[in-house]
Each structure stands twice: as structure tokens, then as C-alpha cells.
Prior knowledge:
Blueprint: H1 21-24, H2 27-46, E1 52-56, E2 67-72, E3 80-82, E4 91-95, E5 119-123, E6 131-132, E7 142-145, E8 149-154, E9 164-169, E10 177-178, E11 185-191, E12 204-206, E13 215-217, E14 220-222, E15 230-232, E16 235-237, H3 242-245, E17 268-271, E18 277-280, E19 291-293, E20 299-301, H4 321-324, E21 333-338, E22 342-345, E23 348-355, E24 363-370, E25 376-383, E26 385-387, E27 390-398, E28 408-416, E29 422-424, E30 434-440, H5 455-460, E31 481-486, E32 491-501, E33 504-519, E34 527-538, H6 548-555, E35 559-562, E36 565-568, H7 573-579, E37 581-586, H8 598-620
Parallel strand pairs: 22-30
Antiparallel strand pairs: 1-4, 2-3, 2-4, 5-6, 5-7, 8-11, 9-10, 9-11, 12-15, 13-16, 14-15, 17-18, 19-20, 21-23, 23-27, 24-25, 24-28, 26-27, 28-29, 28-30, 31-32, 32-33, 33-34, 34-37, 35-36
Amino acid sequence: MRLKNKPFGKVSKPYLCQEPFKKRFPKSLVIFVSLLFGIFLVNFASSLQYDCEFRALSQCQVAPWNNIIFKASDATNAHGAVWNGAGNYQYVLCCNFPGARPASCDADIDPVDGFPDDKVLILSSSTNAHAAVSDLPSSYSTDVCYENVTCIHTTQGCNSDYPIEAFSLSDLTNAHIANQSIYSTDVCCINNREVTNNCVGLGGTACNPSTPAPLCNGGSWGAANDAQYCCVGGSCCNPNSQATTCANFITNNPFYASWECTTSPAGVTTTNNCGQTVVCIDNICPNAGEVCDPAQSHQCIAPSVCGDASCNGGENCITCSQDCGTCPAGCFLAGATWEQKTALAGQNIWMNVTGTSSCIGDNIEFKIYDNSNDNLITTLTASFVSISGKNYSRVNWTALYNGGANNISKYYFIAREPGNQEANSEAGAPFPYLNVSSTSMSDIQRCSQYTPFGQQICINDYANAANNISASCTDASCPWSCSCVWDGNSCEDNYVTTFCNGGNISNIGMCTSNTEGITDCTEGLGIYTITWDGIWGWDFTNIEYNDEATCEATEGGNCVLDNNNWYFDPNNESTSCTSGGQNIFECPAEIQLPFFNFYNTIAVIGLIFAGYFIMRKKDKK
């Protein structure tokens, strides 16, 4: 039976294909389909050309996924084996791209980090092995290597810098293996051929980080994602510190100090090892009571003796009325000064002010100001007292980093008595200003991290970094003597080792570290690494012996040979010292945005469905 043609616009219900589009497809459905299609495009666009997955062996037999990196005994809680190791293991990490699998990993396109760039995992043996992450030093000796693959460990999930979600470990070392995100330590990787902006790809050289920052002489910096400093078309140069460059002059970096000074506003101009012009300016001497005297080759000297008819060098009417005159009647404050010139954020610092005896019993206000804008930071109060003939008031403040040039906050304070007479630390001596670093007390883990802040902060060890040298530093039963020492250019670990026997404590020798290199938090991908060797010296109480047999028979333990003499060293501390090592610790956690993955996709689709049904209800109204 043939249907008759009907006039346009008079279509009956069976002809739904000709029904107006808006009526047949509600707006909410159109939006839903569009968003779903968009999600598909995003995931398609962001899919990896090079990828690796932890899979069953049966899923890694056909190209392109037939490139096996290592094997595992199970899907989780697994032991590992090298790709051709013994054992009938049915789980593997396999990749969709080929690559060489050398027995040892030695390709390192970024020499700054010190870790080979083709290392995926470290195993305790070739089969039935525990595992360790590849981007930290390990006592394990079986490397799992794959050409052009760089891997890191993280607890934040993989991101676009290391997008391959490879597998997870139960710990940093002595760990079991599982699929990604099963354990808290994820291993994320990248195929360096997929990286278009690594340093080598840009034709550059990765420069070692330093303080001050390195220079790219004759070239320019490239935006590489595998090196903090990538010099393209030039040569790397690590400048000497301003303290070294300015030699015997105090520099304009407040955390470096030497023993001479300049009062010239123009300062002293010199050139560092990289050809940079450096101006050394600072008229503050590091030692209490000293002043800068240009008449004596800019030496920091003790102030003039009271009685020379000149009120100078920190003298005032209280300390030298002969030169400075009699103080006014009533309470009079003078000589406001900080306890020291520099501080770490979070460090407790004293402020001091002297005054006449009429101030005794008064409450003195200490108002602290930001030197950059004169904003009031806080007000503290302390009583004015007299102790052992000295009249003064002092108060303690927790140093605050509040931003500033060169990551330094600079402060002064004004001490005020109830009658509103006041003394300003800017006119005081020897420390009119306090310079607070952005580095906090909690950031300091080892003595070498004090180096940028100079000798005073190093030897005082405000953060108790020396306790981290060894567990023996805080062992009450047989303690080592541990401290931070200044060697003229850097802050170093120093410890005296001991041996305890029946309540008797014997000193063995002293070790002082010599820092060879530091990998900071940026270069270390969240890991701060200090590399060092050591200088060893025998304690004077440790007797020298001419032969090993006599030494061990007398001392009752292991003896070692050094410069033709034998010394008692039961735990081989001398060898441990001179062999050096690495101090490694994690940097403060930073918030990272996770890479858009399968779970993100499911969540977004769920939200879109919810939005669709809400809009669908509105369409029906």
C-alpha cells in the first residue's frame, strides 16, 4: 500500500525524521552530547605516544606492547625480577615502544641531578627481589634499565612532566611492587623522545645550580623541563660568592661578612670569576662595638676611647658623658641595638636598649618596623631593670620573613619609655638592623645549609642541625660530640667519635665534612642532596702503635693503619669519614595538580550526567 504525499508542515507523527530539530532534541541532550564528545577529544588529544603499563604477561605478548622492562611475582605485594630473570612470573611492566635494556644504567643527559636517565627500578637481586626507587641512592646493585626512560617517585600522583603511570612501591626501599596507586609511593616516568623541551633537545648544556645563580656566558637560557638552568649557545659559569669576590670587604649581601669595610657610598667595584661587575658596600662591622674607619685601610676597629672629645663609635651620654654630654633629667633611653645582624625565619632574637637609672621599673615598648616601607610589624613590652650595675631592657622576638629583595626582610625597632622619649636602633651600634632570611629554622637539616648565612649562624646552630649528623650525636649512653663549624668559606659537620666499654668512654677521632656539591629541591625533584667527603684526625688520647698486633692486643679491638702508625678504630669511623657520602632528605611537600587520568574522566562524566538530568527536568516544565 502506497502512502500519499502530505503537504510540508503537516507531517503526522510516524514521520519523526521530519519533526523540527528543537522539538526532537532537547537543549539539555545537545549539551550533554557535546560535553561528552569534548571529554573524548581531550583524552584522545592527551593520550601518550609512548606509554608503559603494569599488566599480566599475557597482555604483553603482541606488538606494540611486547617490550618488557621487568617481571613481578603477582599483581600486588609482589617481588621483582629483571626482564630475563629466573622464575615463572606472570606480571610485567611493558611498554608500547622498543628500547635497549642494558645491565647497568649510565646514560645521564642531565648531569645536574646525578642520576642516570634510563633507570626505572633497583632490585636487591636478579629474581625474587625487593625493590627500591631509582631516583635515590640505594645499597641494591641490580639496576633495571630502559633506553630513554626517566622515572621518579612521588606521593602526589603523576603529572604532565612524568605522565607514564608505571607502577607503585610499598616503600622507598626494601619494597614490594604493585600496579599504579596501589601503594602510596607511585613511580612515574617519561620517554625522553616525547620531551620536546629538555635541555639536550634544545641544544643546551645543563648548568650546576649555585649561589649566586649560574651564568650562561655567550648564550641564553632555554626553558627546559629537565634542568633548572639550561644554557643554549653559550657556556656555564658558576660565579664566586660575593663574599669571595669582595675579598676583604663586607658585601651588600647581609649574610656574608669579612673583616674589612667601606664607608664610601659608591663602594668598591671589582670583577668576579665570570666577568660580572660586583659592588661591595656595607658599613656595618661584624663584631660588637667595632666601627668602620676609612683612615686605616677601611679596617673594622674598636671605637675611639672615651675621652677623645668625640662622641662616636656607639658612645652616648650613658656610656661616655665626657664626650657626649650629660643625659637629660628623668628616664632617658640610648643605645638601642639588635643582638645580632642576621637571623633565620622562626629564630628567637633579642633587642636591647640601655638607659638611665630613672627608667628602672618602667615598661618599655619595643616597636618593630619593616625597613622597606616603615610599616609597624608588632609591639612588644618589657620592664627596665638594673642588674650588676647595668641598666637596660631587653625583649625576645621570633624573627619573621615578610618578603623583600634577595629573599631578605630587613627590620629596625624603636624603644619608647612612658614619657615618649625613644631610642631608634638605626642610630645604635653594633647592629642597627636585623636581616631575616626566607629560609626557616625547619628548613635546616644539615650544617652545610647554613653556609649562605655566614659564620655566626653556623657555629650557633640555632636549628640543632648537628644532631642530624648521626644518631650517636643524641645517644645518651655513648654520645658523640657533634657541632657545626665554619671552615672559612662554608659551614660543615664536625663530630668526635667515641667508643664505650663498661662505662668507660674513649675518644677515637674527629671528622669534619667537606661539602662537594648540593642538589637543591628544584633540581632534586623534591629531594635535597648534599654530597661530601671528610677530613679525619685522630684524638690525642688515641695511642699510636707501631704494629697491628700490639694495638689490637692492647686495645682489645679493631685497629687501622694510618701514616705508618696503627690506631684503635673499632667501628672504622676513620674510613667512613674519608669515604664521604650523601645526606638526603625530602623537601617540604608542594601542591601538585595531578595529570588528567581515567578516574578524572569518570568523575567528570558523572557530573555531566547529573547536570543533564537537572536540565532535563527543566525542559519538561
